[in-house]
């Protein structure tokens, strides 16, 4: 199995205090953590790559802890998402390997959150940016938490790297007015409602 060779971790934080309407009672915090690692499959086609998901699990949990702690602890988290940017010598399937270790790490850390973790991925060069989708951690139909966080790093991913991303938020969009299922009314049983 390949080792996970970590080049850097990037932590991005955002505190939204105003969106043009009345100031909220408390600011919305959104954050992202990105791990830039060597892509062990870059430059060649490798048939059996699934085993690398197991290698990525400890990194996923480390990243989830780092991000949740930066946002005030796991109990503060209401929204999440994940993504990957694959360097140009890799393929989109290499980014797909992040689905399981990234998603399950956040769900485990947040107390077995019920909603599927939304995800996106792409192949990109240095400085590529990714809009990572966000939904409520226990009920995907909670519209107030539909969001996206743009994530990127000026020197990543290099051609032979993967930029693995987790995103978390502490609440709904400021001034959300879409209606639908409210977070306080979500049952959190099936991951949808």
Automatic annotation (TrEMBL):
Q: InterPro entries recorded for this chain?
A: AA_synth_put, BB2672
Question: Its domain of life?
Answer: Bacteria
Q: Which Pfam families match?
A: AA_synth
Q: What is this protein called?
A: Amino acid synthesis family protein
What is the scientific name of the source organism? Roseobacter sinensis
Please spell out the taxonomic lineage of the organism that makes this protein. Bacteria, Pseudomonadati, Pseudomonadota, Alphaproteobacteria, Rhodobacterales
């Amino acid at each position: 199995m390949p080792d996970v060779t970590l080049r850097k971790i990037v932590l991005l934080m955002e505190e939204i205090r105003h969106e043009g309407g009345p100031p909220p009672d408390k600011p919305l915090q959104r954050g992202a953590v990105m791990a830039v690692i060597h892509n062990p499959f870059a430059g060649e086609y490798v048939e059996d790559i699934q085993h690398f998901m197991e290698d990525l699990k400890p990194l996923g949990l480390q990243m989830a802890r780092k991000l949740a702690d930066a946002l005030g602890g796991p109990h503060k988290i209401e929204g999440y998402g994940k993504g990957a940017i694959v360097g140009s010598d890799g393929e989109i399937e290499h980014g797909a390997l992040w689905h399981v270790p990234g998603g399950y790490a956040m769900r485990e850390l947040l107390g077995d959150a019920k909603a599927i973790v939304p995800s996106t991925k792409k192949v990109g060069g240095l400085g590529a940016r990714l809009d990572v989708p966000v939904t409520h951690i226990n009920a995907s139909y909670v519209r107030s938490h539909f969001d996206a966080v743009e994530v990127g790093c000026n020197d990543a991913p290099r051609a032979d790297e993967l930029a693995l991303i987790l995103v978390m938020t502490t609440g709904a969009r400021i001034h959300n007015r879409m209606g639908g299922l409210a977070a306080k009314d979500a049952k959190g049983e099936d991951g949808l409602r």
